[in-house]
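Sample intake sheet
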Amino acid sequence: MLVVLSGAKKNIGDFLIVDRACKLLESVLGEELVVLPRWQPLDGHVETVAKARAVVVGGGPGVLPSMYPQIYPLFSCPGKLRELGVPLRLLGVGWFASRGDAPEMRRFTWTPETKAFLEVMGDMLAISTRDAVTRRLLLAKGLSDVTMSGCPVFYDLRHMGTPYRRPADIKTVVYTTPQSPRFTGQNLELLRAVIERFKGARVIAAFHRGLEADEFTPPAEAARFTEMAKRCEELGAEVRDVSYDLDRIAFYDDADFHIGYRVHAHLRFLSGRKPSVLLEEDGRGRGFAEVLPAPSIRAWEIPRFGRALLPALPYAPMRLERRFARIGPAPDAVERAMAAVDAFIAGDDAPYERAVEAIEATYPAMKGFIERI
């Protein structure tokens, strides 16, 4: 039996991650899985964990300086897993990076609590990463048992071993909206261009983190999402709240093309052997762009003065980095994204074919990592 820690609260991407992680574990190992919420301490589940062969974190961008106990609370006693003799495996995790560049990597430092936890776990911890950027970071920060396996969402077991398939016609386009308010103007400009380019197609604007205020979405954020949804409808798109339930994105199976800001919509389409263009909101998209050669457009940029200062910023106070290296929308992102769309319309499937080939080539690393859990 394995204990799987899920980060799924509201964002449908997190539900997709743990769903694919569990399917991979079941397919490769065939063991019973007990799924528990990642954000809650395990202190009340000692008996269950003690019976497990391992605790597996089911993906997500949890690599942060304060990884333990902020992201992975696990047990309040950092040595409890070792005491129980239960190893910890992080499956397809990623670095939650703002930019994901070398200066940010140099500044990255484990908190004392995380460092102590990593030292206690020692050889009872093994990590697979969703991209090479995260692997480089972890190796640079002193960890050794680190495999680049790709994200669990890379692997739709229904389609493994099959090639990319160009849609016969583009009848339905899924457009995913950004999380950050800094991209509001760019988002609407892009959606307008997408609707214009795919005339006659049904364009569905999918909100991965939903629209309603609740325990995971403050009222002010919900109001912003609702306003964005209204603007999307005014431009001619259908709007769907796809949070909480994977059945809400079942229609992705029947859609023909994806373009937008949500990384896991991008992966969902590519894993289903369909075309997708991603706009990177931050460094998380940057990592995937290294692994999968499908079109991935950096939607952000750093002001020119900040770019000049980047090499020195890791050695300066954090307040200077926040002031001068804060990312904003790239003025040419829409133009670059639509160039990728135009290339697809003109018949260029090579980027999507290579992305599918990369998924197939990476799967043995994922399978191998799972086999040694």
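Comment: The chain has two domains: 2-152+361-371, 172-359. Residues 87 and 124 are 5 Å apart (CA to CA).
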